[in-house]
Design brief:
Blueprint (H helix, E strand, L loop, with lengths): L1 H20 L10 E5 L1 E2 L5 E3 L8 E7 L6 E9 L5 E3 L5 E4 L1 E2 L6 E3 L7 E6 L6 E5 L1
Parallel strand pairs: 2-10
Antiparallel strand pairs: 1-11, 3-10, 4-8, 4-9, 4-11, 5-6, 5-7, 5-10
Amino acid sequence: MRKSLAGFAAVGIVTAALLTAAPSASAAGCVTSGLWTGFLSPGQSAYKASSGCRDLNLTYSDDKSGAYGDAYAGYYRDAYGYWTIGSRGYVYADDGHHALNEIVLVSNLTSGREFSVASKWDGGDWVEITH
């Protein structure tokens, strides 16, 4: 009986670890785009998907020049074609995975709108935006 309980506990711990390490965005029917950031300005861009997610969620970040993290801001093209920073401004994020809705860079972005991400302290960071 004790061996069975120990086995179930071990399986539960391994399962919890795997679920924690993976972003949960796919369960929400969202789309994830990987982008290289610009330095205090938009970097590589993508287009907001028509999905169940309304926001631009930072779900992974890797500050390529440091070991800890960076501050990131979401940008989108307005109706006149100009880049506009999201109302949240720059939000600090440690390197690694982030839960869906934990770090929202832009809220309620319309489908088809072009967006990008900027880094505050340097450019060339890799981020994944779930939208």
